[in-house]
Amino acid sequence: MLKGLIFDLDGVLTDSAKFHLAAWNNLAQELGIKLTSAQLDSLRGISRMDSLNLILKYGKQENKYTETQKEEFAAEKNEKFLEQVETMTPADILPGITELLADAKKAGLKMCIASASKNAPKILSKLGIASQFDQIVNPALLKRGKPDPEIYQKAQQLLQLHNDEVISFEDAAAGVAAIKAAYQFAVGIGDKQILKGADYIVKSTKELKLDQIVAVFKKNNKKVG
User: Fold this and answer.
1) Which residues are noted in the entry as substrate-binding (predicted)?
2) What is the per-residue pLDDT across 128-145, written as a single tens digit (0 to 9) for each?
C-alpha cells in the first residue's frame, strides 16, 4: 500500500539544475577544462565533490589539486549557485508539481526530499513549499552518493516506511539507478532512453498525475507479490 513519496529536487520540483550546471561549467572553464554537453549532463543528481572530481577526471586533472584546493573550488561554485537561488520564487516550481503535491496531501501521503544538494532547505523555502515535506535527507550525513541507494534508503527510513510503500521521483539516470537499488518504485522525468530503468516515465513534470502513477504502482506491486 502506498504511504509516501520521495523526491529529488533539482530538475524534479524546480529547474535549479540549470543553475548548478552553469556554475560547474564556469568553474571548469576557469580550470581550462572544456566540457561537452554529455559530460555536463552527467553531473545531474550527484554530490558536489563527486561532480568536481568528475570534472577534473574529464580534464585529466584528477591528481593536480590537493583536497583543500578542491574544497575551495567547490565552495566557489556553491557561492555562484546561491546567488542564483536568491532570485528564485514560487513561480520557479515546475509545471504540474503544485497539483501533484496537493493531491499527495489530500491522499494523506508522507513526503520526503532526497537530494544531493546541501541547499535543499533554502531552495524549498524560496519556492514556498518547505512546509509540504515531512522530512529532508541531510546529504552531509551520507557516506555514498547516487547511484548508490543510500540516500533513498535514508529517506524511506525517515518516513518510517518500507520500500514497497513509497514512490520516488528522479530526472537523472544516477538517481533512477539509486531508487531501483533501494528496491523502490521509480518515476523518471525526461528522456525515455536515459531513464529506461524507471518503472514509470514521463517527458515532463506537467504529465505527472498521481492517480495514473498510483495505478501503475499497484499493478507493479501485484506482479512482485
Assistant:
1) 8-10, 24, 43-48, 51, 77, 115-119, 146
2) 999 999 999 999 899 998
Domain 16-87: give its CATH architecture: Orthogonal Bundle (1.10)
Which residue carries 497539483 as its cell? 99
199 is catalytic: no
Given 10, 92, 103, 134, the catalytic residue: 10
| Domain at 4-15+90-222, CATH from 2.40.160.20, 3.40.50.300, 1.20.120.140, 3.40.50.1000 | 3.40.50.1000
Distance from C-alpha of 220 to C-alpha of 225, rounded to nearest angstrom: 9
* Residue that has been written with the C-alpha cell 515546475 in this structure: 94
Q: Is 118 annotated as a binding residue?
A: yes
45 is in an annotated binding site: yes
* Residue in 8, 41, 50, 211 annotated catalytic: 8
Is position 48 annotated in a ligand binding site?
yes
State yes or no: is 8 an active-site residue. yes
Q: Is 104 annotated as a binding residue?
A: no
Cell of 43: 553531473
What are the backbone angles phi and psi of residue 18, rounded to the nearest 5°?
Answer: -65, -35
Please state, in angstroms and rounded to a whole number, the distance separating the CA atoms of residues 149 and 141. Answer: 14
Least confident of 83-92, 94-103, 158-167: 83-92
